[in-house]
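Here is a typical protein record:
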Amino acid sequence: MSGMGDNRAENRVPVKLTYVNGILQCSWMNTYDKRFTEPFFDDTIFACRIRDQWDTAPPYTNSLFEMEMQGAALDMVVPSAIIFHLSRCGSTLVSQLFATSGRFIVLSEVPFFDEMLRLPLTEPGFDGAKIAALLSASLNFYGRKKYADEEYAVVKTDCWHIFFYDILREMFPTVPFVIMYRSPDEVFRSLNKIPGRQIVPGLVDPEIFGLPGMPDPYRKEFYIAAILEKMLEKFLEVAETDDNSLLVNYNEGPLNTVKKIAGFAGLQLDKGEIRAMEERALYHSKKPGELFRKEPAAEVPESLNGAMKLYQKLGIKRKMK
């Protein structure tokens, strides 16, 4: 096990939980001097692992306690905004637009943050306070400034992290929370065509969404509809009780959404940044070299009736806020 004092230390981040001799440990990854500009942090991990294969240093692991102590000693990173989303609603492209500017550290669906939030579901002895301390420490590693022009950090959560709202709001009482959503029928068609992790049995626990037991894999349509309904219920609850939350509909467009978030969070965008964002907005969120094409509309299945009603209520709330 190599120490944090070597020349790789300043670029290491805790990337995965693993068991070593039956003890839960953090494994670390060298991010070198890389800016985090990929659509998802999984892509960043892949890029760093490719480079890491030529590194002869032994893998670094340490305990969660050590990670917490080391992270707590770093300067606290307070996000400029935290983005929650329904999935397939433009949040990835919005985070990509922020990443075009060197002033933004963009953390898009970081797997380690998800592991921290879900620890109480798999490990005894982890309560909200402990999770908050661990998540805060890990965020300090990910949010360290590597370049002088970096000023802001934007965090895009996994879509199910809205159900960890209480922990995150307690951690960041003054940070703007952005809730991005889209008509459920459009999200449904996308998830039905290309499933996200949240609808694959076993990858994300149904209890996170407040759903009983594992879903019947042959009733995928109803499971997707149930998840969307539960998420929209939570979105509406947060929007009605949290004055520092911002509702954004997919149909407002990616660049307008970025401007709206920047205005809500008190961030200034210059003309050069806006031009770069306009160019990036022409392309697919997950495939930066591919022009975006909107899919045609289709009939709304009856299973989405509850979700569609909640969507209409969110629209009314968004216009009131």
